[in-house]
Amino acid sequence: MKFARDWPLYLVGIVVFLWTIIPIYHLLIIAITPQQEAVASGLFPKNPTLQNFELVLGAKHNMVQHFWSQLGTSVFIAVMVAIITLAIGACANFAITRIRIRGGRTITNIALLTYLIPAAFLAIPMYKIMGEYRLLDSPWSLIFAMVALASPYAIWVMNQASTKIPRELDEAAKIDGASTMQIFRFVYLPLMVPTMVAIGTYALLLAWNEYLYAFLMLATESRLTLSVALGNFLAFDDAPWALLMATGVIYALPPTAIYYAFRRYMVSGLTAGAVKS
Amino acid sequence: MSAVVLPAPAQAPLKKGISEETFWGVVLLIPYFVVFALFVVFPVLYGIWLGSSPSAYTKLFQDPVFVSTIVNTIVFLLVAVNVKMLIALGLSAFFLQERAWIRWLSVVFLIAWAMPSIPTILSFRWMLNPEWGMLNALLFKWFQIEGPGWLTERHYGLTWAIIVHIWKSLPFWTLILLAGRMGIPKDLYESAAVDGATRWQTFRYVSWPSLRGLYLTCVLLSTIWSLGDFNSVYLLTGGGPIDSTHVLATLGIRYLRMDQVDVALASIIVAMPAILPIVWYMMKRLSADHTAD
Fold first, then answer.
1. Spatial separation of the C-alpha atoms in residues A118 and A108, rounded to whole Å
2. Which end of chain B has a smaller Cβ tally under 10 Å, C or N?
3. How far is CA A48 from CA A53, A57, A242, in A?
4. A-chain residue closest to B282, CA distance
C-alpha cells in the first residue's frame, strides 16, 4: 500500500541516485583499473588493482614524482588561507557589529560587492598584480589571492551571526570593567565558534579546490598544488588516465571528509548566510 | 571609504572609553583594508589601466572567437541557470518528504557539491572520450551505436559543459530552496488540504508565493556565478574544438596564453556592463534583507 503510494518518490530517488553517483563511480573504477587497460570495456574492470595508488603514494611514476611536495603545498596553502581569513574576518566583524564603527555598513556592502563578482573575472588582473609584487610562483601569491576572495564572504556571514548575540553581554562586561579587547577575547570569540568553524571550513575548501588562480600563479612543478598537477595531466595526449583518477581520488578525499564532518555547521552557517529571502 | 574620525582628545572618562573603542575598531579593520587595497583595488585599477588601449577592443571585436563566445555564454547561462533552478525547485519538494531513505539519499546527493570539482570533471572528460571512454564503449556494446565525439563537436561539447556545471551546483541550490520550503508554516498546507486543493494549486497558492523572492535571488546569484564558471568548460573541452566552446570566463585565459594581455583584459571589461548591474542589485537586495533581521 505504502509502496503503491510512494512509487513516484522511488522513481525520483533512483534517478537522483544514479545522476549523483555515475561520475564518481566512473572515477573510482578507472582508479582501480590497471594502467594498460584504462580503456573502459564494461561497467567494472576485469582485473581490479590498487597498483595505481601504490604508484601515486610511492611517487613511482614521472607524472606523480612530486606528489608529496604538491600535497604539502596544497595543505599549507589551505591551512594558511583558513587561518588568515578567520583572523581578518573576526577582527573586521567585531569592529563592524560589536564596536559599531562608523561606516560599518559601507564596509559590509563593499565586502558583499567583492564577494558577488565572479572570481574568474578577477583572476587575470590578480595574476598581473602578483607579477608586480614579485610574488608569482610563491605559495603566498595564492594565499593572498584566496584570502582576498574569502574574507568578504567571511565578514558578511559573520555579520549575520554576530547580530544575533545580544548586546547586553558586551554592556555587562563593560560595566564589570572589561576593555574592548577583553570583550573581543572573552565574550565575542567564544560565542562565534560555530560560525568560525563554518567559515574556516569554507576558506579551507575554497583554497584546496582552487584551480584557476593556482594554475596562473604557480609554475615550478614541485611546488604546484595538487589541483594544478591534476590539470597538467591533460597536457599529454597519452595521459595515464588510471593514474590521474587515482591521484584525483586521493586529492578529493580530505576535503570531502572535512565537508561531511562539519556538514552541520556548513549547512546552518552558510545557507543562512548565502541566501536569505 | 569609511570616514573614521578619532574623537578629539577628551578629559572626561566616558569620552575616553569611546575613544578606546573607536581606536580598536580602526585597528581591527586595518588587516581587511590592507588585503582589500592590495589584492582587490590595486589589481582592478591595474587591470583597467592595462585594458585601456582602444586597439585591444578593435582586436577583440574583430576576433570571430569573441562573437561565438558571446553566443556560447548566453546559451550556457540561459540553459544552465534555468534548468538547474527548475530541477532544484522540484527536488527541494522531493527532499522535503519525510522518509528515512530520502534523508540518506540527501546525504549522498550532497557529495557532488562537497567534492572538489576537478577530479569529477576529469572523470566526465575520460568517460566522454570518443574512442576509449566508457559512454561510447557501452553504447556500442549494448546498442551497437557508434557514439559521436562528445567533446570534439561544438554543440555536444557545450551541452556536456552545461551538464557538468549542473551536476556540480545542483545540490547547493536544492539545499537553499529546501531551507526556504522548510520555512513555510505547515498549517498553510493543512488548511489547503482541508479546502481540497490539488497538488498544483497547493504549489501555486501556498509554496510559490513564499518561495518567489528566494527563487529570484537564487536565479540572479546563480547567473552571476555561472558566468564565472571556468572549470566546467576549461577542464572539459579546453575551449575546443578550434576555440568553439569558449565562454567569457575562459576567453581571457585564451588571450593570456596568446600573450595578448590587453585583449584578455578587454574581454573582461566588456563583460562588466552585464555583470555589474546584477551584482549591484543583488548587493542592495541582500543587504536590505540583512537589516530587516
1. 18
2. C
3. 12, 18, 11
4. A116
Whether A134 and chain B come into contact, CB under 8 Å, resolves to no
Span B50-63, pLDDT tens digits: 888 888 888 888 88
pLDDT in tens, A107-157: 888 888 888 888 888 899 999 899 989 989 899 999 999 999 999 989 988
Contacts of B184 (CB under 8 A, 6+ apart): B206, B207, B210, B211
Q: How far apart are CA B125 and CA B128, in angstroms?
A: 5
For residue A245 the three cell numbers come to 583518477
Instruction: State the cell numbers at B131.
Output: 574512442
Three cell numbers, residue B138: 557501452
C-alpha to C-alpha distance for B132 and B121, rounded to whole angstroms: 16
What is the pTM for the complete model shown? 0.87
Cα–Cα distance measured from residue A182 to residue A168, given in angstroms and rounded to the nearest whole number: 15
- Say how many C-beta atoms besides its own lie within 10 A of residue A134's C-beta: 9
What phi and psi values does residue A275 have, to the nearest 5 degrees?
A: -135, 130
C-alpha torsion sign, points B56, B57, B59, B63: positive
**Interchain contact, B289 vs A277, CB within 8 Å:** yes
Give chain B positions within 8 Å (CB) of A77.
Answer: none
Neighbours of A196 (CB within 10 A): 20
- Distances from the Cα of B192 to the Cαs of A131, B89, B148, B199, in angstroms? 62, 20, 50, 10
CA atoms within 13 A on the CB side of A7: 4
Residue in chain A closest to B135 (alpha carbons) equals A40
Task: Judge contact between B227 and B69, C-beta under 8 A.
Answer: no
Exposed/middle/buried for residue B246 (C-beta within 10 Å: 0-12, 13-18, 19+): buried
What's the rounded Cα separation, in Å, for the pair B267 and A87?
Answer: 35
- Tell me how many degrees the CA angle B2-A123-A131 measures, rounded to the nearest 5: 90
| Cβ proximity of B248 and B267 under 8 Å | yes
Q: What is the ipTM of this complex?
A: 0.86
Contact A92, A107 (CB under 8 A): yes
- What lies within 8 Å, CB to CB, of B203 at 6+ separation is B93
